[in-house]
Specification:
Strand content: 25-35%
Shape: elongated
Radius of gyration: 17 Å
Structural class: alpha+beta
Number of strands: 4
Number of helices: 3
Distance between the termini: 25 Å
Strand order of the largest sheet: 2-3-1-4
Helix content: 25-40%
């Protein structure tokens, strides 16, 4: 019996060749993309600080049944990030992704304590 796995995928990149109008649009919308609002979501959460540097980060959550599903989840995340950028005409470069299978992540102190005491 397999159980559902939760994946967190981070897609990073750098805006490239932005026009003044695109830069202004990103600056105007910056508050909605502040790192303090960052979350791993199925549709993706974008953060950037265009005033400081041209880098951006998309955070995605996805699920799968098998360990290998993380590869497809990562591909979906990259495709979604590229589509978002392309729809707005934003150039980008140095796109790279990292993915984590939360079922494989080490347990935190509270999780270990709960596992020892039977979840109490």
């Amino acid at each position: 019996m397999s159980s559902s796995r939760t994946f967190r995928i981070t897609v990073r990149g750098v805006f490239d060749g932005l026009t003044d109008a695109q830069r202004a649009a990103l600056l105007a919308d910056a508050a909605a993309h502040d790192v303090l609002r960052a979350a791993f979501t199925p549709e993706g959460s974008l953060t950037y600080d265009i005033a400081a540097r041209p880098a951006f980060v998309f955070r995605f959550s996805d699920t799968g049944e098998e360990e290998e599903d993380i590869l497809e989840a990562t591909e979906r995340a990259e495709t979604t990030a590229k589509a978002w950028l392309a729809e707005r005409g934003y150039g980008f470069k140095n796109l790279r992704s990292t993915a984590e299978d939360l079922s494989q992540a080490p347990m935190g102190k509270r999780q270990r304590r709960a596992a020892r005491t039977g979840g109490a």
